[in-house]
Design goal:
Strand content of chain C: 25-35%
Radius of gyration of chain A: 22 Å
CATH architecture of the largest domain in chain C: Alpha-Beta Barrel
Shape of chain C: globular
Strand content of chain A: 15-25%
Chains: A alpha/beta (about 425), B alpha/beta (about 450), C alpha+beta (about 550)
CATH topology of the largest domain in chain A: TIM Barrel
Number of domains of chain A: 2
CATH topology of the largest domain in chain C: TIM Barrel
Number of domains of chain C: 3
Oligomer: heterotrimer
Strand order of the largest sheet of chain C: 19-18-17-16-24-23-22-21-20
Number of strands of chain A: 19
Structural class of chain A: alpha/beta
Number of strands of chain C: 24
CATH superfamily of the largest domain in chain A: Metal-dependent hydrolases
Strand order of the largest sheet of chain A: 9-10-11-12-13-14-15-16
Helix content of chain A: 25-40%
Largest sheet of chain A: 8 strands, mixed
């Protein structure tokens, strides 16, 4: 009885809020960012104006004039490419403790065909709250089970999931972990070992079936195949047309995941990789890109150095591994710049840490021609600040997603405006 | 409160006095001092002797043999204080009853908890180890100093700090006792009555003992440790720190306290405090908040990261806390978020993790700012502590360097199990669906569901 | 196997042993005399005093005389000790000997208010007596005695306040006969009632303060009322508080389980606050708490369950783990191991008297573990004192036990060589004059000829010694692929077969579990057998009843 009433209240509340939200509408058009500096990955800040039209960056050069454009004075400001959080649940979850508002965890161990994009709620209150910190794009990732589904990269503005889709999706694979699930996990080493062996057996079976399915589906006998969405979802993986996102963190698990990848000859991006700093040579040798984070995370072992969470990303990057940074968050994706900032402070430096939340992610996702930097012909995802985007003191002055000028408003600012002087 | 304590506990006082913790001497040269109470002082020295700040000024001569730290180009600020944490204790929730005023997490201190060191490495010198929020009236808390390396749990205690107790409103006690145990409280209405009922008991108990002690009655009333604690809350000896989220229930508790003449309280989390900021200010209540946690449960869905700013601009003494062994490692960064969300000044932001929590814990005369005669709890940063690039270099407690980034081997654990394997790797859980105040209760809830 | 038979035979056993019952019983041959003369033995009178070759005369369960060249009385049974070594019988100051484990029934009690459970559920039963739960035939008593223990202080099983301890003699045909002293201690643990108040360590500590002070005032009220009842409200009786009054007035010590250093600090903190006499029990780690142990109100019982030393071969397997850390961690671990093993020596150096206890750990490891402590700096005399004089003093029975002196209980052990020599073996244990001859385990023969599991396949006969009654049956061991199967059939119930689980075989030793019907309740039995080519011997251990001897021989091999 109790539960039901909570859900009803909640659903009502969400509905009312969505209807009654006093959001200033985002507008699109021809926008010209004047007199500012553009941040470039290779050359730092350069003096340039930016012209955006039809959702695209039309031009980046000095002294652009355009009679029809709405001008934004960027004097003293810097124009940055929108940040990409390469691992979140944004749009898939609303209130974490209320299960009916969670859409990231389907029932079943092998559900790679579950599409995150389907369940992304464009009206989630989370989205404006997080994007106003300069995060324009996020990978929304399903969870639970061995193959929980297909993650989708979305822009954090749009009226439908299709509007928001940013052109990359990938199957997620939770590599069997031999770590503890939490401080409450009392399983013995033997139990863990057994669970791992059992999982590996099932995975082997799944992959070999997917391989056979893929092979047949490439022949003239394709039509004889039964409907099998689970295996069908793996076809692009088996064909090496898309990378598999492999979540793996513990040192020994990473090593065994690497040999698994080699045995199966597929393209992968490793995610999590908390102990990546211990297996740098192996990651390098097989040229595996890494999405790591959260950076603001406790060490995995009680014996670990206190700062390994902060320094792991930098250690991997310095060794030559391609690194992107994620928050693994839902409602606080907005802390992406601070996660990157800590990585920067603890060895990575601003330049590389900023790449890890922009162009590196775009490159891993194969969309670097459209995302990750402020350049001609790229999607108009940019934000303009009065300072270092990792610093909390910095203010974001303008935000554009997909060519829309996004109002810097969210529930958090409405409540501030309403209640500062009640 | 009661005479009987003196009768039985005569021994206690002497043992407390005999507890001696080490105090140190150190001279910090040429740093930029962020004093909190007296602005910034560039190129200034600070001398700590026998655990206390003895001098602040230019060109202080180093007494012979004293350890000297060159803080040239670095920032020196008072040790960070966390008004809400659960580290260094072996039990958080005695979640079996809506009222457990008699239990005390200070009984279960764990000086070997590695999280103490990790907090120190983030500049935190004092934390308020709290009971959880499973019960409307939870247990008593303990303010500890992060004297990493001491082996006696008693040496963690910050003797003389205000005695505090955890209260809790809203979803947690309702979930544990109403939903989980089918007893009151099952609603926010019920939570109020749990308080009123408990306070009545405490009041009656105090009266019974008064009558016995002054000879009016001959037979001693039945001793009851829970009612002792409740009476101590009413007398002001124990201060309430209340886990709270929604504005209505915050207001409710202030009304109850007014009825019972309790005039001191610190609300914890208090995510909707911004909605009743004027009422909080008028009551004189304190607020200790998260920098930006929200939406992990329904009662924090209508939150704003501008909460700390709104509260403090309305005159409420506000601190930023961690409630987390992760966040406690970078409270300076959490405080810095008040500049993002509300544009607070450096001193205002740093006050949220120094003098303000000190006030909330009743230790502001001793710590929380860099002033002569205050205790020698200091943290030295490379880069300004409110910058994302800040890195703590030294953390000093009572004049003793307890964290030194240059002498920081990998494995800092103290208590090593002679049979242990390499410590297990623990996967981090993405996101969270409750605050950490429900630690240790899941087992109980799980059982209830059967 | 059928446990009903076990239970039945306990009763039989009871009848057999009661030779004073006057009943005709030709199954048992009674003793001729209760005088025993031990001839020619090296007498270790006290831990520090060895008086050399002497004789000992025992009568009515007491040591009557110790001297040289004594003439044995004509009506005495003479034991030729062949220059063996005599020591005062060992005393275990803290154990659950003779107290069967309660089988959890798996159901959680229905309690309306989890914050106010009945005392039984809360684990608060200080009025209960260990002596009431004592079963004289419980199996662990024998194995303890075989290790040289003659007296034990036993406490009930349970949670926070399981009840009161008793001091028992490790011989007797009934619980009453065994009890030397009753209600000697109050047993307290930091064990919560898991889900009921008090559930956690902080709940237990608060509840203890509450109960202690309640008892204090309760007593005061009762006394005042005794002085003058007229016009005064009558204080109610309360069995829980009544049971704690002796603790509050200093006449009964609190025995508290404190395995780790943090437990000690917590226990000491409570003791200082409330002021009772405290005995820290089953202590495995002292660490920095040693400074508290000099108090005259605090005694300490060190656990002989020592940590295992790192097996260096085995640890190499972990090499996929964090290598960089490996070495320093191994060093820290070795250091920690050393700290645990030097604790006893450190106490000796600091002049803090302590006793050993086997509450956890196995009594068969008693000697080898003390030898490890001696190798880490403990003196032999301190080791001996910790088994004899110190526990006697802590338990308040030093007038009747702890040394070999006339007038004391005839609790004596005879060892063929000085006890702390590695090769020494116990030959006899006397408990109040009752002699037990210690059978040495047969040396395994022909073990080398056993190659793999194949050697044990086939049908075997077995017999189990169930407290004097022999129970027989057949055991069939078969192999199917990688799986080994074992079936046990009791000769009394040939249609009822028990299948073994958890089977492991290693170099002639076969271990497995069976679940047997113990009078309506399923009971787990752990069986470990050492095989020769044609026979085997070993033990069947039943939870709460101890280890029973089991042996057998081959009937047939598989075709």
């Amino acid at each position: 009885m109790k539960l039901n009433s909570i859900y009803i209240i909640l659903l009502l509340a969400i509905a009312t809020f969505a209807n009654g939200q006093q959001i200033t509408k985002a507008t699109t058009g021809i926008f010209l960012l004047k007199n500012g500096e553009v941040y470039t990955h290779d050359n730092g800040k350069i003096k340039a104006d930016v012209l955006m039209q039809d959702g695209i960056i039309k031009e980046v050069s000095e002294m652009i004039e355009h009679p029809g454009a709405k001008k934004f004075d960027c004097t003293g400001l810097t124009i940055y490419p929108g940040m990409i959080d390469s691992g979140t649940k944004i749009g898939l979850a609303e209130v974490s403790s209320v299960s009916l508002t969670q859409d990231h965890n389907e029932i079943g161990e092998f559900t790679p065909h579950m599409k995150a994009l389907t369940a992304v709620n464009p009206s989630s209150v989370n989205i404006p709250v997080n994007r106003v910190n300069g995060i324009t794009t996020a990978l929304s990732v399903p969870s639970g089970g061995r193959f929980p589904g297909t993650a989708a990269l979305i822009n954090l503005y749009g009226y439908t999931p299709n509007d928001m889709y940013a052109g990359f999706s990938a199957v997620v694979f939770n590599y069997p972990s031999t770590g503890k699930r939490g401080s409450w996990d009392r399983r013995s080493d033997e139990d863990i070992k057994k669970a791992e062996e059992k999982a590996n057996k099932k995975i082997k079976d799944f992959i070999s079936k997917a391989r056979l399915y893929t092979k047949i589906s490439g022949t003239d006998k394709a039509s004889s195949l039964d409907y099998n969405p689970q295996l069908n979802a793996l076809v692009p993986i088996i064909n090496k047309e898309a990378p598999l996102l492999v979540e793996v963190n513990k040192k020994s698990d990473i090593l065994s995941a690497i040999s698994w990848v080699n045995e199966n000859d597929i393209n992968v991006i490793f995610t999590g990789v908390s102990e990546g700093y211990l297996v740098i040579d192996s990651l390098l040798k097989y040229n595996i890109p890494v999405i790591t984070g959260p950076i603001l995370n406790n060490p995995g072992r009680s014996s670990d150095h206190y700062n390994i969470g902060y320094s792991n990303a930098g250690k991997m990057q310095k060794a030559g591994i391609k690194v992107a940074i994620r928050t693994n968050e839902t409602e606080n994706v907005r802390n992406l710049p601070y996660n990157a900032g800590f990585a920067a402070a603890y060895g990575m430096g601003f330049k590389e840490a900023f790449k890890a939340v922009t162009i590196n992610a775009a490159e891993m996702f194969g969309i670097e021609n459209k995302y990750g930097s402020v350049e001609r012909t790229k999607v108009a995802n940019v934000f303009v600040t009065d300072g270092d985007p990792f610093e909390t003191k910095t203010t974001i002055k303008y935000l554009f997603i997909d060519g829309y000028n996004i109002p810097l408003e969210s529930r958090h600012t409405y409540l501030y405006d309403e209640f500062l002087e009640r | 409160m009661l005479n009987i304590k003196n009768i039985i506990l005569g021994l206690l006082a002497t043992t407390c006095l005999s507890a001696q913790v080490d105090m140190g001497d150190v001279l910090i040269k040429n740093g930029t001092l962020l004093t909190i109470s007296d602005g910034e002082k560039e190129k200034t020295d600070i001398l700590i002797k026998k655990g206390k700040i003895s001098k602040i000024g230019k060109s202080i001569k180093a007494p012979e043999g004293i350890k000297t730290i060159d803080a040239n180009g670095m920032y020196v600020m008072p040790g960070i204080i966390d008004a809400h944490s659960h580290i260094a204790i072996d039990a958080v929730n005695e979640a079996t009853n809506p009222v457990t005023a008699e239990v005390w997490v200070g009984d279960a201190l764990d000086p070997y908890d590695i999280n103490i060191y990790r907090a120190l490495a983030g500049g935190v010198t004092i934390s308020h180890a709290m009971h959880g929020s499973a019960n409307a009236i939870g247990g008593q808390c303990e303010t500890i100093k992060h004297r990493w390396g001491v082996l006696d749990p008693n040496d963690l205690r910050m003797e003389g700090a205000k005695k505090t107790i955890k209260f809790a409103l809203g979803e947690n006690p309702i979930r544990v006792h109403g939903e989980g145990g089918n007893i009151v409280p099952n609603t926010r209405m019920g939570v109020e009555q749990v308080f009123r009922n408990a306070f009545e008991q405490g009041k009656a108990y105090a009266a019974e003992w008064k009558a016995y002690n002054n000879g009016t009655t001959k037979i001693a009333p039945e001793y009851n440790i829970r009612k002792e604690a409740l009476a101590d809350i009413l007398s002001g000896e124990i201060m309430i720190h209340c886990h709270s989220y929604r504005a209505d229930e915050i207001l409710m508790l202030m009304n109850v306290l007014t009825d019972y003449g309790v005039d001191q309280i610190c609300f914890q989390h208090v995510n909707e405090g911004f909605k009743v900021a004027p009422e909080l200010a008028e009551f004189g209540a304190y607020a200790s908040v998260f920098s930006d946690w929200w939406a992990y449960k329904f009662e924090v869905y209508y939150s704003t990261a501008y909460n700390a700013t709104i509260l403090s601009k309305n005159g409420v003494t506000t601190s930023i806390n961690s409630d987390s062994r992760e966040l406690i490692r970078h409270l300076y960064h959490e405080a810095a978020k008040t500049q993002k969300y509300g544009g607070l000044s450096d001193t205002e932001a740093l006050s949220m993790i120094t003098i303000n929590p000190a006030k909330q814990l009743g230790i502001d005369k001793r710590v929380g700012s860099l002033e002569v005669n205050k205790e020698g709890d200091v943290v030295i940063f490379q880069n300004h502590p409110l910058s994302i690039y800040a890195i703590p270099q030294y953390t000093i407690v009572d004049g003793i360097v307890r964290f030194d980034i240059n002498e920081d081997p990998q494995d800092m654990r103290i208590d090593i199990d002679p049979e242990e394997k390499i410590p297990a790797f623990q996967e981090s859980e993405a996101g969270h669906n409750h605050d950490n105040c429900l630690q240790g209760v899941s087992e109980l809830l799980f059982e209830h569901k059967h | 196997m059928n446990l009903k038979c076990f239970a039945g035979s306990i009763g039989v056993c009871l009848l057999l042993a009661t030779h004073t019952s006057g009943q005709i019983d030709y199954n048992n041959i009674p003793e001729v005399t209760d005088k025993i003369f031990i001839n020619d033995v090296h007498v270790q009178k006290t831990p520090t005093l060895n008086i050399g070759l002497s004789d000992i005369l025992i009568e009515n369960g007491l040591i009557v005389q110790i001297g040289t060249n004594m003439t044995p009385p004509v009506d005495a049974k003479i034991i030729e000790a062949d220059s063996a070594y005599a020591y005062s019988g060992f005393i275990d100051a803290f154990s659950h000997l003779g107290i069967p484990k309660k089988e959890p029934n798996g159901k959680r009690p229905e309690v309306k208010f989890k914050g106010f459970p009945p005392n039984e559920v809360a684990g608060i039963t200080p009025e209960k007596l260990a002596s009431a739960d004592l079963s004289h035939s419980e199996g662990s008593i024998k194995s303890h005695r075989d290790a040289g223990f003659t007296i034990a202080h036993i406490v009930p099983r349970g949670k926070m306040l399981p009840g009161q301890g008793s001091i028992i003699s490790l011989h007797g045909s009934s619980a009453d006969e065994m009890i030397l002293k009753d209600q000697t201690s109050t047993f307290l643990q930091f064990s919560g009632a898991r889900g009921y108040y008090p559930s956690t360590v902080i709940g237990v500590m608060a509840k203890w303060r509450d109960l202690y002070r309640k008892a204090h005032f309760h007593n005061k009220n009762l006394e005042n009322y005794k002085l003058s009842a007229n016009g005064i409200q009558r204080p109610h009786e309360d069995k829980t508080l009544n049971a704690l009054i002796p603790v509050t007035n200093g006449s009964r010590p609190v025995f508290m389980t404190t395995k780790k250093v943090k437990d000690i600090f917590r226990a000491v903190e409570l003791q200082k606050e409330l002021g009772y006499d405290l005995v820290l029990c089953d202590v495995k780690q002292i660490g920095a708490a040693q400074k508290h142990l000099k108090s005259s109100k605090i005694d300490i019982l060190l656990s002989l369950d020592l940590p295992k030393e790192e097996d260096k071969k085995k640890s190499k397997k972990d090499s996929t783990e964090v290598d960089a850390l490996k070495k320093s961690m191994m060093e820290r671990k070795a250091k920690s191991y050393n700290e645990y093993l030097t604790q006893a020596a450190n106490l000796e150096k600091a002049n803090i008297a302590f006793a050993f206890t086997m509450m956890s750990g196995k009594s068969k490891d008693l000697k080898s573990n003390i030898i490890k402590l001696i190798e880490h700096g403990l003196s032999k005399s301190a080791g001996l004192a910790a088994l004899t004089t110190n526990p006697a003093k802590i338990l308040g029975i030093d007038d009747i036990a702890g040394t070999l002196e006339a007038g004391k209980l005839a609790n004596i052990i005879l060892s063929d060589k000085p006890y702390f020599e590695k090769e020494s073996k116990l030959k006899y244990v006397f408990v109040e004059g009752h002699m037990t001859e210690i059978k040495q385990k047969k040396k395994k023969e022909g073990k080398g000829s056993l190659k793999g599991i194949k050697a044990v396949l086939g049908i075997w006969s077995y017999s189990v010694d169930v407290f004097g009654e022999e129970q027989t049956g057949k055991m069939t061991i078969t192999q199917n692929g990688d799986d080994i199967q074992i079936e046990l059939t009791d000769d009394n119930t040939p249609n009822d077969t028990d299948n073994a689980t958890g089977i492991s075989y290693n170099d002639g030793t076969l271990s497995f579990n069976v679940t047997v019907d113990g009078g309506g309740q399923e009971t787990a039995v752990d069986i470990t057998l050492d095989f020769n080519a044609e026979d085997f011997s070993g033990t069947a251990t039943i939870e709460g009843m101890g280890a029973l001897n089991m042996e057998g021989s081959k009937i047939s091999s598989p075709e």
